[in-house]
């Protein structure tokens, strides 16, 4: 157990460090071993295909440079191509305006689609779909910001309009994912970090895909408000746990969400009750330790469902019973150095320091919490 005084000191340090940086849309010039010294983000011209674009040179590794384009896309330039495909420029980096991005999206998707502008989004959707999708994405983002802010998480205003693309059916969505070279299967929607877009489809009942859309919209909001960083190694139990938390519709309803039972991810809870005995924390403790230490279970098709469910349980418990720990783990991981591999031993050390206890004690508390849920 860590003394309360030490934990409060650590929390204060996290808040202080978080206040010094802007994430998701800006850059933290802190570099790990293997990264070349760098003076901070610099405006550059860089080559994408046969076209030159203006961007922000974020960082160099031994193999590539990372550049953010004016529309928020992340591009890489191979180290052996830096001299020919990336040039410094005196031109100041200015993110694309909402109007510029709207025109760009109209040209990209053509006359069969509308591009609807809202306060925070540009929503690409088949013509004639009205306000249903734009309102849904706005509600998701507003609820996310409100939820995080109330719990002390550092939330920042992004510099780019968020883009959500709604395709007419699943086939069209997979064709779009193929065009962007995103290899996924059997999904109703996805948040793609590289292009900073949520993509889903309108080919079925909204209720059947709404939970997935809320999950992916939470990812997009997290990566665009600095709750997660788009360029560092954040543990999957944190990113996917947050996504799972926002699947229930009650999260988007201030009235209904006052009751904890309606905030529960019913699918994750049912899976946990089916696959392990929650009256004993033995099984749960093993899973907590595995997810804290590494992300392998999220890549295993046999174990992935349990990994998502335990990740939800961990983040949901923190958000409901330990707001300080919830905020501290998110604020800390968001400010980790870019491109640095988050090694197993360090992940465990950081978790236990931030939580103020070891993983076994945390799992015991988590099991009691889950047993008390309706």
UniProtKB/TrEMBL annotation:
Species the sequence originates in: Neorhodopirellula lusitana
Start and end residues of each DUF1570 domain: 210-340
Pfam families named in the record: DUF1570 (PF07607)
Keyword field: Signal
Protein name: DUF1570 domain-containing protein
Signal peptide interval: 1-32
């Amino acid at each position: 157990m860590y003394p309360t005084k030490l934990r409060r000191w650590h929390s204060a340090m996290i808040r202080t460090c978080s206040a010094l940086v802007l994430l998701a849309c800006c850059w933290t010039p802190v570099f790990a071993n293997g990264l070349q010294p760098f003076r901070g983000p610099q405006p550059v011209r860089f080559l994408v295909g046969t076209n030159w674009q203006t961007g922000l040179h974020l960082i160099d590794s031994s193999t590539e440079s990372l550049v953010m384009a004016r529309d928020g896309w992340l591009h890489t330039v191979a180290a052996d191509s830096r001299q020919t495909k990336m040039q410094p420029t005196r031109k100041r980096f200015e993110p694309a305006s909402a109007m510029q991005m709207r025109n760009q999206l109209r040209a990209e998707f053509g006359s069969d689609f509308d591009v609807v502008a809202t306060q925070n989004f540009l929503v690409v959707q088949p013509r004639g779909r009205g306000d249903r999708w734009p309102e849904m994405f706005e509600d998701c983002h507003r609820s996310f910001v409100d939820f995080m802010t109330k719990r002390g998480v550092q939330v920042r205003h992004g510099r780019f309009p968020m883009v959500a693309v709604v395709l007419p059916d699943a086939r069209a969505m997979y064709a779009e994912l193929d065009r962007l070279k995103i290899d996924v299967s059997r999904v109703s929607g996805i948040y793609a970090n590289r292009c900073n877009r949520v993509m889903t489809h309108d080919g079925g009942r909204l209720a059947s895909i709404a939970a997935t859309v809320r999950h992916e919209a939470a990812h997009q909001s997290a990566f665009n408000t600095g709750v997660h960083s788009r360029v560092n190694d954040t543990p999957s139990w944190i990113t996917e746990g947050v996504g799972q938390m926002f699947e229930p519709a009650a999260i988007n309803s201030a009235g209904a969400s006052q009751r904890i039972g309606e905030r529960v991810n019913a699918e994750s809870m049912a899976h946990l009750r089916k696959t392990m005995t929650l009256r004993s924390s033995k099984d749960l403790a093993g899973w907590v330790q595995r997810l804290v230490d590494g992300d392998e279970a999220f890549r295993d098709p046999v174990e992935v469902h349990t990994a998502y469910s335990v990740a939800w349980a961990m983040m949901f418990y923190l958000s409901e019973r330990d707001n300080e720990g919830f905020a501290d783990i998110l604020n800390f991981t968001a400010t980790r150095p870019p491109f640095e591999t988050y090694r197993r031993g360090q992940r465990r050390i950081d978790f236990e320091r931030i939580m103020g206890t070891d993983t076994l004690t945390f799992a015991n508390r988590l099991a009691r919490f889950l047993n008390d849920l309706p």
